[in-house]
Design brief:
Blueprint: E1 3-9, H1 17-27, E2 33-39, H2 46-52, E3 56-61, E4 75-76, H3 78-83, E5 88-91, E6 97-100, H4 103-113, E7 121-125, H5 129-140, E8 144-149, E9 157-158, H6 164-169, E10 172-175, E11 201-204, H7 213-220, E12 224-226, H8 229-243
Parallel strand pairs: 1-2, 1-3, 4-6, 7-8, 7-10, 8-9, 10-11, 11-12
Antiparallel strand pairs: 3-5, 5-6
């Protein structure tokens, strides 16, 4: 039986997903299964993917298209609607598409593995598709949070507004931006590192490199740090379960 899966994104040669799922297909002896990277310069090209790729059974979606892909889908799940981002697309028996979000599943499980108690106050760096999944989880945990952006809206903060008082009130910082991703590994969010200490957990959603510049700088200040690799595994497994339900 032929089934094609794939990843939709931009500049995704580095991506984990293709290797992960091809390894899964081999281990489970799923002949006829393939996984393709759809590296799209613009989201408009997604329509051609849908029309010209036979045997499509499931797609992952990554930066920068987790929001942009929504109008192309027949429907989206309640969680994806609440998060306003899709990272997994499922085809039903009638060929209709449903957008899901499994990032929140991966983040929730991975975060709890790094906590002794639930966080009380957090900073979320970035406002893209992954940011919505983080907000969704923190709401579930009754954790207050503030979103930080280079172009703040509503109740968001600019990076320049972060100060000793704000940093002293938080216990969790989540980086949802791509800053520091391979190959630009020296980049990092512009936060006041001098105010980071051992009360902080730094959760960087980036997984390549294994230790980002943000993590290195925070670790020097005594913070606990973790990357997004476990989150990636957990969200991928949830996507696989959705494709096979």
């Amino acid at each position: 039986m032929k089934k094609h899966f794939g990843l939709v994104g931009k500049n995704i040669d580095y991506s984990f997903s293709r290797h992960y799922f091809l390894s899964k297909f081999r281990k489970e002896c799923l002949s006829g299964y393939s996984y393709i990277n759809f590296d799209l310069p613009q989201i408009d090209a997604f329509e051609k993917v849908l029309k010209n790729t036979p045997y499509l059974a499931g797609l992952n979606v990554t930066i920068p298209y987790k929001k942009d892909v929504i109008p192309f889908l027949d429907k989206i799940s309640l969680e994806a609607k609440s998060i306003d981002a899709v990272n997994t697309i499922v085809w039903d028996v009638n060929g209709k598409t449903t957008g899901h979000n499994t990032d929140h599943v991966g983040f929730h499980k991975s975060l709890l593995e790094n906590l002794e108690q639930n966080p009380k106050n957090a900073l979320i760096l970035g406002t893209g598709g992954a940011s919505g999944a983080v907000r969704y989880v923190l709401n579930q945990l009754n954790c207050k949070y503030t979103t930080v952006s280079r172009s703040p809206k509503n109740n968001e903060l600019h990076y320049n507004e972060l100060n000793k008082k704000i940093m002293g009130e938080i216990d969790l910082i989540v980086n949802t931006t791509p800053l520091g991703t391979y190959p630009n590994t020296e980049a990092h969010p512009n936060i006041p590192y001098e105010h980071i200490n051992n009360q902080h957990l730094i959760f960087d959603l980036i997984y390549n490199p294994e230790e980002t510049s943000l993590m290195k700088k925070a670790k020097i200040k005594g913070a606990r740090v973790t990357n997004g690799f476990k989150m990636l595994i957990y969200q991928a497994e949830k996507a696989w379960a959705l494709w096979n339900q």
